[in-house]
Records
---
Amino acid sequence: MSYHSPQRIAEITMETGTRKANLPLLTILILGFVAGAFISFGYLLDIRVTGNLPKEWGSFSSFLGAAVFPIGLMLVVIAGGELLTGNMMSVTLAMFAGRVSFGLLLKNWFWVTVSNLAGAVFVAYFFGHVAGLITKEPFLTKTLALADGKLHESFVQAFWSGIGCNWLVALGVWLSYAAEDVGGKILGIWFPIMAFVAIGFQHVVANMFIIPAAIFAGHATWGDWFSNFVPVFLGNAVGGGIFVAFLYYIAYIKGTEQSKLRASAARKETTKLIMHRQLKNK
């Protein structure tokens, strides 16, 4: 398996973020819709796998759900998609590097959020509700329990849970950039995503599926969803934008640029000394 160094991953991320920020609006809307749907497929798979497992299995049931959930991000990265939490890392790093303006970043985040929501709600309604995949027991009970777990956290709890989530999700995207082959990308994605789901962190796009699924079942309201959306969105932004994009920008982009400048200055000074000695010898 070919592998890129962290330095090269930072450069790839910067280039990817720049490209994403400059995509045509129609492309963003299409790829954002499918990304929201892909993440929802992962959540739906989680529910269908774990919904009728015995309670005696305890946390192992959570692990099994977490083990299948990463299919969502695999589809986004490999098949193609614009996912808000990934863009919170890649486009932000491009902004720190001066490749993307703050206004362009906000525009990208806005349209990706809207299209991710459309894709997630589409899956929640048509596959979860109309097709009945989560309206029958025991899958309905599992769905409502998952939604309640998200909604019952306080603002502060949801915010910090969002930070932990996108720290790991953004690292999953980061690791996928390390590999050039599909197998390497799958491995890079699977471990961080499995970890965030098993831990129970909150993902803003995943919540765009699970909470509306509970709404369609008459168990919650759109006001409940929005009250959860705000802290989780902010937490995800900090997790991906600060704990991954900013820290790695300082370490691998800005730090490298400063090293290059110092090395260039040192070479110039060395050249001057050599020339000065040669003149003296003459």
Note: Residues 6-281 form a domain with the Glycerol uptake facilitator protein fold (CATH 1.20.1080.10).
---
Amino acid sequence: MLVIENLVGGYGETDILTGIDLTLAAGEILTVAGTNGAGKSTLAKAVVGLLPRMSGRILLDKQDITRVPVEQRALKGIGYVPQVANVFGSLTITENLEVVEGVKNTRARIAELFELFPAIAERRRARASSLSGGERQQLAFARALMTRPGVIVLDEPTAALSPIMADESFRRIGELARTGTAVLLIEQRARQALAISHRGAIMDAGKVALSGPAQTLLVDERAAQLYLGVAHAS
């Protein structure tokens, strides 16, 4: 679904990404982990079209979208849940979903998503600013899924969530992949993220330092020492 080739870019004259190569298949979860400042969120912005300067290529379902603006990328099938500012606080839950463009039969799609996210369905008339962290995250997921994207980019989806709500978020991400959606997961809770993923990539200084099957990375000594932390015996 998604191919990233020799991606270089950043802000102003500074390159944050210094040569990224990644692939993502339909129904696959790819976790991108790494230290703060490694370029993970910048990679997410590049994929969805928010990075101001970049070179290389990004292919979506074999189509080159490198120069396609962010709005068109969304219509072509890329969903995005940013780490912050991911819902409109002044709008109700329903209104947050209604304003998403490019959706066929909006009312029916909202009904489908309310079945997937019953907690926000119960509060559909409440303003998003009144939601708890977990409810807000559900609304952000639902907004990103309105257009039925083939690829969804999640930037730190468990940030600021309690451990219980983080577990619930990971469960929903796993369910999402089983529907055939490809998931690019940027995540600080690297071990938990890799545990539900098919593959992983660990970034360092704007490059992919390590990559491979998620279960292999979880037991890789270099990954553990440098990026994931030492696993504690239960």
Note: The chain has one domain: 2-228.
---
Amino acid sequence: MDLKRFFRHLFMTRWRVNAAFPRRSLHAIEKAVQESHQAHIGQVRFAVEGALHSTALFKGLSARERAIDVFSQLRVWDTEYNNGVLIYLLLADRDVEIIADRGIHAKVGSSEWESICHAMEAAFRRGAYQSGVLRGIEQVTELLKKHFPVHSPPRDELPSSPVVM
């Protein structure tokens, strides 16, 4: 077990999560997701989790594995065209994972998702949490517009509100 990681998670309090994502930032993220949903027929969700539980840390759960769990819990896979995308941030690790359902993943390569994640992580290292997330949503939106353009009036299949875990 990585002790540095363990202590990062141990000391990641709800206060620190709220400091990185105050109410105004969460509102701006929700607005960006709502606007994104008007530009394509895909679905975008954003979730931030402060830290993993100690049991998950002892088991060596990675941010990617946790993101897949959250993707399932939030039912991001439950869209008509299998084009849901979860942007997941594990704040204690400053690790961003993008989990895309099979409909969009078949059209967008892993390197494109990783590029978005790296850009967001770079913004987070500078303390620019809100702008990092908003830029990530913009980049995901561009991919969804390209591969899932609007055919009829778009409808929200998933909530636009960010999830703070």
Note: The mean pLDDT is 93.
